[in-house]
Amino acid sequence: MKYLSSSALLLALLAAGCQSDAPATTAAAPAATTAAAEAPAAKSQQTILFFGDSITAGLGVDPDEAYPALIGNRVDSLHLPYTVVNAGLSGETTAGGRSRLHWVLSRQPVHVFVLELGGNDGLRGLPLADTRQNLQAIIDTVRRQSPQTKIVLAGMQIPPNMGPAYAAEFKQLYADIATKNKLTLIPFLLENVGGIARLNQADGIHPTPEGHRLVARTVWRTVQPLL
User: Which PROSITE patterns does the entry link to (predicted)?
Assistant: First the structure.
């Protein structure tokens, strides 16, 4: 098993709830994604691609401590023929993910596509109709370019800063999209991690290494049956 991490080249600050660092992370996108996507996988292996924002990228922790790397370790320990690619990008919104998706998919065939986006949309209070549209477009693009790919949608939740109605609709949109598209759903990526101070860094958003270990367990429960 080979683990490829774009987060190793992404040390820019997260725009999750902080719009000021978005330009820096966007500028880093081509180089970072190239590092993750262009490295060749063994011919006998298939790819599990994690497509997300700073939580997937592993902002604030070492690349090998981020949950995609931990999934890679689990795959390796079981001698499964998969390469794990971390295509997480700090500060990414659903619109940004939609714009770079085709380029990322063109780098390798993907067997399992884990979609973890939307948190930055919610923390910025972006229109949820746009978030739905962008996530749907990402799903449609994956299915058009790679019909055999299994898609996993990672649900997110946000604090009620934008109002309880907005937060409730944000949470529900993941279940709605998963049902509509018959996707495998992780109801809440940060289950047993979100909101727990000791499992998050000082910003209260990004998991610590211990938090990432719990996230990896949550993700593995869903991904393992697809392999």
Answer: LIPASE_GDSL_SER, PROKAR_LIPOPROTEIN
Whose tokens are 């697809």? That residue is 226
Q: Which residues of the chain have pLDDT under 70?
A: 1-44
Q: Give the type of residue at 102.
A: H
Please compute, for residue 225, the number of CA atoms within 13 A of its CA located in the half-sphere on the CB side.
8
203 included as an active-site residue: yes
Is 111 an annotated catalytic residue? no
| CA separation, residue 54 to residues 29, 84, 88, 116, 226 (Å) | 12, 17, 6, 10, 24
Q: What separation in angstroms does the CA of 100 have from each of 65, 90, 103, 208?
A: 25, 13, 6, 27
Which tens digit of pLDDT belongs to each residue from 2-44? 555 543 333 332 333 333 333 333 333 333 333 344 444 444 6
3-state SS, one letter per residue, for the chain: CCEEEHHHHCCCCCCCCCHHHHHHHHHHHHHHHHHHHHCCCCCCCEEEEEEECHHHHCCCCCHHHCHHHHHHHHHHHCCCCEEEEECCCCCCCHHHHHHHHHHHHCCCCCCEEEEECCHHHHHHCCCHHHHHHHHHHHHHHHHHHCCCCEEEEECCCCCHHHCHHHHHHHHHHHHHHHHHHCCEEECCCCCCCCCCHHHECCCCCCECHHHHHHHHHHHHHHHHHHC
Rounded to whole angstroms, the Cα distance separating 89 from 54 reads 6
* pTM of the complete model: 0.81
Tokens standing for 182? 């018959």
- Is 206 considered catalytic here? yes
